[in-house]
Amino acid sequence: MANREELGIIRGARAGDADCQLALGKLYLFGGAGLPRNMPTALHWLGRAAQQEREEAWRLIGSHIPFETARNCLPDVLPWYERAYDAGIKQAGLVLAQLVLQQPAANESSALRHKAQQALEAAARAGLPEAQWLLAHQADGRPLNSVAPVQRHTRPLAARRPSPPAWRADNIIPAEDYARLDQLWRQDHMLFLAQAMPLLQRLLAAAPADAEAARACDWLPGPPQVLLLARYAELLPSTDDDDGSRHQCCELAAYGGDRNAQLALGLWFARMDGEGRRQSSGIAAVNFKRAIRWLTLAGEQGLADAWFALSRIYLKPEFSQRCVAEAQSYLERAAEMGHVAAQLECGMYAWRNRRTDEHSDVRAAYWLQKAAAQGCAEAETALARVAATPKEAGWVASIVTCLTRELLESQPLLAARLELAALFGLSRAEALLLDVTAADQGHCLVVDIRASYGRSKRRLVLLRTARERQALDRIVRLFESIDSGPDGLEGNYRQRLYRLKTWLPHVGGDDLLAA
Fold first, then answer.
1. Which domains does the chain have, with CATH numbers?
2. Which tens digits make up the pLDDT trace of 420-446?
3. How far apart are CA 3 and CA 9, in angstroms?
């Protein structure tokens, strides 16, 4: 959840401020106090800042944004990588080469393709393993767009074992068979299983036994083979895996980069289900190290279930590296990606810690609202304890009906406070003393006037409708430009109350003044 400073940066970035766009891009690139790392979002804001001639923005893009993220934003990102390469950033040259040389020749100018080729060679000479790998494939006469992006080798080229040239999966299973199986998958899963069985037996007979063997011989399956292996492992019940073919398919698909297979394999090594409950089936002896490896790979590909499973592992008492803080960080990652159980648990954890951290209730409301929006009844029940539904402010009902355009123009701040009271059920003291800009937390309003009015209590009011959000945004913009403290433009509580009485003399002014 973004804190107050980050919310200000977000507002400035959306308003077009280049410095705020650069700052927001860096927050998403490296992770902030309340914002998770998010490469696509970081590229978006850094690109916006680079368009406004911020040099640091395109340098950060060239140094840190990988090809997998940049390729989704072609051709807009090419100028930033070209500038960064010209400035001497080798990593930018590698990504520029991948972006340009893996596209059809007609898409880019010959000068840019020549520069991209030079960049690839320079990156290879600088010792970047991926550049060496791509250059080696180019030297073999294979175009770069034929290199599977699933697996990238991190060893130097000279240290790699040569991959066996005789094994090619597309020779074992013709392409038309993959197309037929893909059609069967959409029509009938059981028919898919029956038709895929003999083809998979031929495929598995020539494939490595597991992921470790595949890594040892640099076995690289193509996307059709990975998809076939993953679908078979998903459909075949574990009770029918007498010959180990299902587990072999799962391992090879996970090695090939299928995130669902990586999740299933990680849970298998940990002998647990997605909720962290122990399972009777799985590896004979739990291997948390391998489980963490596969679950991390699945999480990095966008599976919230993988991060949630990792949080369960780090809470297990039998895990030698048990760490509550590590478990909480993985839990928050899953919650940020929309995992309902993780959102509920993050909300309840924050609510339990409200006595040690006063602002924990704000975080609790944030996560519980997210879970409740996805239909979690338990989160909705907890929300009623965190932020009770405000009662209607009866004292302001008669005043609102008397507001005229002349009165609104003469006292805009007071009129805005009365509107807040009507929207969120504020008492008279809360409406007149609330620090509006500090109270707005994005998803809720923190009503806390104890510093000026000792008899009051701190409470939260949830923002549940777009109308409430729009009205609060408009009122916050009004108060951001003035000093609304006790010694500021509006004065103290009695002065504000007196102004209300004199402004509306015919609406119970004497009763309003009584304190």
1. 4-147 (no CATH), 184-340 (1.25.40), 345-386 (no CATH), 394-513 (no CATH)
2. 888 888 888 888 888 888 888 888 899
3. 10
